[in-house]
Amino acid sequence: MENYSQELIIDYEEFKQLLQLKIKTGDEFYGELLKTVIDNPYRYCGLFRLSNAKTKLIQNVTQSNEIKFGDFMEELITTYLSKLNYTILSKDLGIDDNGDRLNVDQIFFKDNILYIVEQKVRDDHDSTKKRGQFQNFYKKIVLVRKKYPQYHFVAIMWFIDDSLVKNKNYYNSEIDRTKNDFKDTELHLYYGKEFFENLPNSENSWEEILNYLKKLRVENSAEILSIPDFGSSPEIYKALLNLPSRYWKKLISDEEKYLLLKNELFSSGENLKKAISVRGDN
After folding, report:
1. Residue 2: which pLDDT band, with cuts at 50, 70 and 90?
2. What is the pTM of this model?
3. Which domains does the chain have, with CATH numbers?
4. Angle between helix 127-147 and 168-178 (nearest 10)
């Protein structure tokens, strides 16, 4: 990694392993892709869809990977905090007064200071979602203050991608409006590197994360998300052979939704016919 000589907090292989736990690649990816279309056939085929099944698959995989990347970043930051000798607490906060179970993205403490963090990749919510986002943040502060009254408390809204600050003024105004509701509590809004800059002894973490993301981007620069041909590609044929029985039986059934799915996705080659000859109806 260029221009980076600090002692590593986690190494690049651990970084990639955490990512691979969230975002499947290779054989696992094709197997999960088949399960997805079999579980949701009408999502990909039917008269009332302008896009074809393959286009819809690319769209859904892209959206799914964006969500999973957010999950990866949550796990990654938890790992960094642990390596930085913060004590990690259960993210399950329990039940609030309305009977809702609440979870927080990060909760940790050190030196009698307890931190909670609502962590999102980017600040791009519309007006309804931004209000819900802050209301959830507020409810979690209330619940944690009841659960851990012995600590000085720091509550943080953190958007990782600092290139988007769509609702910054709104969140700051809400923090100013509610900050006196909580005794012995600091409320903060951070973007990008500000989170680690304001966390004791963690300054190098952000630079390391950025370097790893840049390195990952370089390694994957030639990759363009594509869905292999279901009817003819060897990847899908292998996935068909390894498909769990309950999915396989649905796929080869004569239900109308699966007949439509097979016609839409598998008509271009012999994959399904070859797999049936090997597997039969098992």
Report:
1. very low
2. 0.80
3. 12-73+223-279 (no CATH), 88-200 (3.40.1560)
4. 40
